[in-house]
Each structure stands twice: as C-alpha cells, then as structure tokens.
Design brief:
Helix content is 48%, strand content 15%. The chain has 12 helices and 8 strands. It has an 8-stranded mixed sheet, with helices on both faces.
C-alpha cells in the first residue's frame, strides 16, 4: 500500500467517525418538529399565558419544546423568568445579523428553550413594511419574498436539526406582518379564545386569513390545530353559552380541555413562573396539563 493510499484510508476513517458523531448529536429517529402558531388578534384572551404554560407542561411530559416570543411586550420572556436584553430577539435575525439558533436561551424549566423578545422587535413590523413597500414600488427585488418567508427560512435549520419536538410561537395581538410571517412558517394554528361574547366576533378574522393563505399558496399546508377556550367562569351562563357556540361551529377542533379563570394563573407571570411551577396543585395547572397532553395527541406526539 502506498503512502497516498494509506492517507486516503485514514482520511476516510476520519470522515466516517465524524459522520457517526453527527448522528449521535442529531437524533435522526425523531420526527420533524411541528411548528405551531399561537395567535389571536384580540388581546387579553390568554394567548401568552397559554404559550408559556403549554410549553412548561409539554416539557414535563418528556418532550423538548422551543418557545419563540414574537411579541415586543416580551411577556413570554418575563413569564419564564428571563430579563429583556438588547438584541435578544428575532429582530437581528430579520436583519441578517444573527441566526435563529444563536438567539436560543435555556430556561430553568424542564425541556423548555426560549427565543426571547424585547422592545426592538417593534422595529420588525416597520422593517417588514419597508420591504413590502419596496416590492410594491418595483424596487428591491431581493425583498420580493423575503418579507413574507424570512421566518420560514430562519426556522429551517431548527426543523431539519430535530433538536425539538415542538416549536410554539407566541404571536403579537394583531394580524400584522409579523403574525403573517409566523402563519406562513407554521404547520398549525392554535387559537386561544376567551369565554366572552366579543371573542366570537374576532375569531373569524384569523380563520379567514388562514384560509386565504391555504388557497393562495402562501401556506397551503397550514392547519387549524385547535381552539382552546380560556378564562372560563363556571359561575356565569355566558361562559357556557360561548363554549357551546364555539363547539357548534368548530366541532372537534375545540379542545376538550377548558382553561378556567383563576387568580393563581394570573399571578404566576409576576413571579416569572409557569403555573405548573408556581402552584402545581391548582385548577389552572391541572387544566393546562390536560391541554398540553391533548395538544401532543393532536400532533401525534403522545
């Protein structure tokens, strides 16, 4: 055997070993993670509370979850006990100054990682509007798709890497360009819906947008993962009537689990803890545990 062939054999062995190392790092037997948008253009419906608490409960069920805070108010970030930090958001990712993976932070809660938010994310809406204007005016061809698909492309390494089982994205309380970017990137949409009359009026807007994305090709595979009823007050007939109306319209898309209106759930964000860790024996904690198990079943991850 010549020296060259010996070197080649050695090089092949090195490559083989490195490939084996890669397969140990990346669990190829895992399914591709499901990306779920948690969205409702109406504020105060329990959207962020749902994102934080579902993440924590999914983590305790043995799954790895990445929660992405897309709201400039950064309530998911503070709700998991993290401080707002300059440039710690998806805004640098939009600008091409960072990757999505570089923004991931670990939390104190089992199985839960977070991409935090801070106030600079407000500028993301402006930047996306500028990109859209450039396209409409015939300028900036490089922005033609980027202002719509930037998040989908940024998420691709996470989806391909299979480090996580579920990616939950807490959308801002609007149907602006940030929310649109999330819906284009997501596999499914989860709508938290408060058990009040005005909530019924707003749900059609987001379901109509979902249908437009499906029919236009913006995201033809986007599915309604489910509607989760929140802030249920057992003392009022209104809550029961609203749940009944929503079930009549959406059928089995409505989660069987119902989140009660509970003081302990409302208190937990101020302590930087999900309800499961703040008061694990409360009714709110039990409800979110049931909802998390139901979500995993809907995603074929149970």
């Amino acid at each position: 055997m010549t020296i060259l062939s010996g070197l080649t054999t050695g090089f092949d062995n090195i490559i083989r070993v490195e490939c084996l190392d890669i397969t140990r790092v990346v669990p190829l037997n895992r399914a591709v993670p499901r990306v779920i948008a948690i969205a409702n253009q109406k504020g105060g419906v329990g959207k962020t509370t749902t994102a934080v608490n579902l993440s924590a409960c999914i983590g305790t069920l043995g799954k790895r979850v990445l929660l992405i805070d897309m709201d400039a108010q950064a309530n998911c970030t503070s709700g998991l006990g993290l401080e707002k930090t300059p440039n710690a958001s998806l805004y640098p990712v939009l600008l091409g100054e960072s990757t999505l993976e570089e923004q991931i932070k670990e939390t104190d809660y089992e199985g839960v990682s977070l991409i935090p938010s801070e106030f600079d994310l407000c500028a993301a809406e402006v930047e996306l509007a500028r990109m859209s204007f450039d396209v409409d005016s015939g300028e900036g061809d490089e922005n033609r798709e980027r202002h719509l698909t930037w998040l989908k492309k940024a998420l691709q390494p996470i989806v391909n890497g299979r480090r996580f089982d579920v990616v939950l994205i807490d959308c801002p309380p609007s149907l602006g360009k940030l929310t649109l970017s999330v819906l284009i990137a997501a596999h499914g949409l989860l709508i938290p819906l408060q058990c009040e009359y005005y909530s019924l009026e707003g749900i059609s807007s987001i379901t109509d947008l979902m249908e437009q994305l499906r029919t236009s090709g913006g995201n033809k595979n986007l599915e309604l993962t489910g509607v989760l009823m929140t802030m249920f007050d057992s003392r009022t007939n209104l809550s029961r009537l609203v749940v009944g109306e929503v079930r009549k319209h959406f059928g089995d898309k409505v989660f069987r689990a119902i989140i009660p209106r509970a003081t302990r759930v409302a208190e937990s964000p101020s302590h930087g803890k999900p309800i499961l860790y703040y008061d694990p024996y409360s009714a709110g904690s039990a409800a979110y545990e049931v909802a998390a198990a139901e979500l995993l079943k809907r995603l074929n991850l149970a």
